[in-house]
Amino acid sequence: MVATDAQSQIAAKQLKYPKSTFFIIGNEFCERYSYYGMRAILALYMRNVLLYAEREATIIFHIFNFLCYIFPICGGTLADAYIGQYKTIVYSSIIHSVGNVLLALAATPWFFSPRVFSLLALILVAAGAGLMKPCISTFGGQQFVLPQQAKQLATFFSIFYVSCNVGAFLSAITSPIIRQDIKCLGQQSCYPLAFGVPAILMLLALVLFICGKPWYKMLKHGGSIPLTALKCIFHGLRRRLLSNKKQEVSSHWLECVADKYDPQMQADARDVLRVLAMYIPVPMFYALYDQVGSSWIFQASKMDGVVPNWFIIKPDQLAFLNPLVCMLFIPMLELFIYPALAKIGIRRPLQYITVGAALCALSYVMAAYVEVKLEPCYAKLPSPELGQLRIFNGLPCPLELQPPIDGEQFISPLGALQRTELQVEKTRILREDLILNAGLPCMNVGVPENWTREISLSEEESVSYIITDLGGTIDLLRVPGFDDVSKSQINAPKLRVIHNFAGPLTLKSQYGSELTFKLLESDVVTPLIEVDSGTYDAMYGDQMVLSNLQIESGGVYTLVIQKIDSRIVGNLHTITPPATLHLLWMIPQKTVMSIAEVFFAMTYVSFTFTQTPAKMRSIMQSFLSMSMSLGSVVVVLVASVGFKRQAYQFLLYAGLMFLDVILLILLSLRYKYREISPSEDIEPFRVEGAPSPEDVPGQDATKPQQMPETARENLCDKS
């Protein structure tokens, strides 16, 4: 025995680390950067550029996720039974690359039918990423000769996992910067480049992988062994349904397949069914987890990401927390977390999974709390049978309005009357009596007697009027068009200027930037535009009109500037409140969700590995992937309902997840863990191009080369 170990050590020294794995790791880094870089900005692209409503964008996003989880089943079948892993990876990479390029082209302003081609591109990306998923890590593992290179194989999978997370981490930081901070093609953002960079990385991944072909060891593909077990299960079901119920009932219904299948196959089939039952809670977890890239992104887009005097955090940039937390938390598991949990009786995989499910539910309670705090900042849009009215006082003296709005109203000097819920059926005409308190500031302003003006309201619209000085006489003017009170899709402040004189008005920010409005005599108001947040001074020529104007993220503002005699006066009015909750408030819920992923997702992968027969592990990983895909179906169904408040939807998901926790506990109590024999920890692989046993020092020629089965199909599984 000692001699054998010594021979193995000598053989391990003589076998060099496979050069081919460097191409595979480089391919994985580029492909994961490409996938996550595209996915990080996808939800905002569908809402901001393709102009889908948030509910529609969420549905499309999760249909895309569903396809990403379904295609691995096809990829595994292609690789194992038909064309082999190498060709599957190459062909899927080509499909992936075409999808990325098409998505970048569809994002350009001159591309026709951007919605159609964007959706087609997403189908191609899902197909490419999904078909490749069950092959790439497995293909890397088979480059090693076992058992001599077992330690090198473990190192490979560690590097493989790190490359995946580094790619996800870097893309989550850089893609949002390219999307928002770079202006291109006459747009305020640059989605074509933000999608173009992942496309380039995917093409590079393809080139890297092909370049390694001379050094690859190829696995011969053959028939699907798990198919026999599936036939065994279906045969047992059919025999059970057709059997005479009066006959003696066997201890297990699979025993009735003894006419065709041996006891070992029956035992394997029973193990498979036990594990499949434990997949029932999986869809609900992924229904919540996958919304990190959709609903949570939309929530983040409504928050303030400004770090004063430093930079602005983009809503989709917080995606970097997931790979970062995973990379930091995973090493802590064995050292601190698992020993601490063991002291309170949590030692088994299903217990860890239950902890992850509970943390997932908790993260959605936190998300609902954040949403409730955000709601006061949301735009109050005109509703059916209601209209909105704003009357701006452009005079430096107070005004009074007589009924019929809702009683006598007082408008302070340079103030505004804002009513957001006035009863209107189609149109409504109000006749308002205005009384001017002509104090010293307005001594030179002429006020007609019995001054009455009509105000017209429209259903589901917002209108504005300005009381202004026109050459020494006041009048009530309608601001042309209807008011846009909605927030910016990129959470930028929106600003317009109502004026009664011509000339350039310059806003100078605290950071030194300038914004100039060209005021025209023919217009009462400037167009509503998006501006940068900050503190501004308003300048008319060299004259400072107003100072310290606070324009904050997500707010909608109206700046009223009026010339009274030779003086210029004004005031800044908030139409829609800015985002008062900072983006960093999302860090707790995202951190808890990332920890939940480690406990739930990673443990499920290892649980599947240890609790299923060796030859059934690949197909069971495919079933696990398929159960994950059902989570997206849950999201689509819930999103189709259309909740009036997002907080209610988050609480619904939290409640469903708590029920899932209870289900997990009940299933765990009934589950009997499977005893694993040492022989099942290895799985034979016949490899083309690998040295024969006779040629490898320390290798027993009578034994096949062996490679430890891993949960490789789900390495880096964040799709």
Automatic annotation (TrEMBL):
Entry's Gene Ontology cellular component terms: membrane
Start-end of Basic and acidic residues biased regions: 710-719
Record SUPFAM superfamilies: MFS general substrate transporter
Matches recorded under InterPro entries: MFS_trans_sf, POT_fam
Record flagged with keyword Magnesium: no
GO molecular function, one term: transmembrane transporter activity
Bilayer disposition of the protein: Multi-pass membrane protein
Pfam families registered for this protein in UniProt: PTR2 (PF00854)
Disordered: annotated span: 684-719
One GO process term, biological-process aspect: peptide transport
Compartment(s) of residence: Membrane
Protein name (Swiss-Prot/TrEMBL): Peptide transporter family 1
Source organism of this protein record: Bemisia tabaci
